[in-house]
Design a protein that fits this description.
Strand content: 25-35%
Main location: membrane
CATH superfamily of the largest domain: HAD superfamily/HAD-like
Order of helices and strands: HEHEHEHHEEEHEEHEHEHEHEHEH
Bound molecules: adenosine-5'-diphosphate, magnesium ion
Distance between the termini: 15 Å
Structural class: alpha/beta
Number of strands: 13
CATH architecture of the largest domain: 3-Layer(aba) Sandwich
Organism: Christensenella tenuis
Shape: elongated
Subcellular location: Cell membrane; Membrane
Keywords: ATP-binding, Cadmium, Cell membrane, Membrane, Metal-binding, Nucleotide-binding, Translocase, Transmembrane, Transmembrane helix
Number of domains: 2
Protein name: Cd(2+)-exporting ATPase
């Protein structure tokens, strides 16, 4: 049985845009030792914009962007939206399409098979590419295993991400960040935000393992995410928290708590509400 006071805690939280699906989750929140954040769309805005196109020798910017747009045309990933926006034209016709989680996309076209994604995707598909060392997410593009070039895409850290991490630290909670993105960009974002630890280049299943390792070391852990691939991690967390505005339906469904504001600072707020509620119960 759950003390009635928990329901007033839930009511107070909902006024701040923090939707708690049950009193037991508010109670579970009081015991959380570590908050684990996903990067894209959670600590960052998830609004990517194309910054630069680097054609490989013998190729043009237009060719790279056109191929990238064609490959990304059927993806709903924020990276895909930014590429289509930068291209600004109707992408070429596709006869087949595959999304490879944590890697990128692959599309069959009349002109050949186009792949667009990270270095891991290029390795998996046996494409020799030139690494681009940049302060953003890099999309490598190849057609029929011929490396066409890369596209530099930048995201922005949410304005309250750093203060959210600080607030958690003040109330004795550690923080970590998980991402499928490359080490270079993952570490840069982690440093900006101030999280204690960063785990990069993770596939969706690796995120579950990373969370379990953190739980083993630190104890009860909340996970905050927004993506379709985040549902298994949200389910495995002691408290699963989803971004409600920009979050995928699968993430919102799998979560115990939904943040309608999409603001990381709602997390320390929710913990504080849970602790206050517990004091009243006692
Ligand atoms: P995060 O872990 O930061 O939330 P995702 O799991 O969505 O990111 O994706 C991890 C990585 O996989 C991305 O950084 C990107 O390199 C690659 N990726 C995923 N989806 C796509 C896509 N549609 N196009 C290109 N690359 C993608
Ligand atoms: Mg994500």
């Amino acid at each position: 049985s759950v003390p009635l006071t928990y329901f007033s805690g839930i009511g107070g939280a909902s006024k701040k845009g923090i939707l708690i699906k049950g009193a037991n989750y508010l109670e579970a929140l009081t015991g959380v030792r570590e908050v684990v954040f996903d990067k894209t769309g959670t600590l960052t805005k998830g609004e990517f914009a194309v910054k630069e196109v680097y054609p490989a020798k013998g190729h043009t910017r237009e060719e790279v962007l056109q191929a990238a747009a064609c490959a990304e045309a059927d993806s709903s990933h924020p990276i895909a939206r930014s590429v289509l926006q930068a291209y600004g034209k109707e992408p070429c016709a596709r006869t087949g399409y595959e999304e490879i989680p944590g890697h990128g996309v692959k599309a069959q076209t009349i002109g050949g098979v186009i792949i667009a994604g990270n270095a891991k995707l290029m390795a998996r598909e046996g494409v020799a590419h030139e690494e681009t060392q940049e302060s953003g997410t890099v999309l490598y593009v190849a057609k029929d295993r011929d490396f066409l070039g890369s596209v530099l895409i930048a995201d922005q850290v949410k304005p309250d991400a750093h203060s959210a991490v600080e607030e958690l630290r003040k109330i004795g909670i550690g923080t970590a960040m998980l991402t499928g993105d490359a080490q270079s960009i993952g570490r840069a974002i982690a440093r900006q935000v101030g999280v204690d630890e960063a785990y990069c280049e993770l596939l969706p299943q690796d995120k579950v393992e990373a969370l379990e390792r953190i739980q083993g070391q630190k104890g009860s852990a909340a996970f905050v995410g927004d993506g379709i691939n985040d549902a298994p991690v949200l389910a495995r967390a002691d408290v699963g928290i989803a971004m409600g505005g920009a979050g995928s339906d699968a993430a919102i469904e799998a979560a115990d708590i939904v943040l309608m504001t999409d603001e990381p600072s709602s997390v320390p707020q929710a913990v504080s509400i849970s602790r206050k509620t517990r004091r009243i119960v006692w």
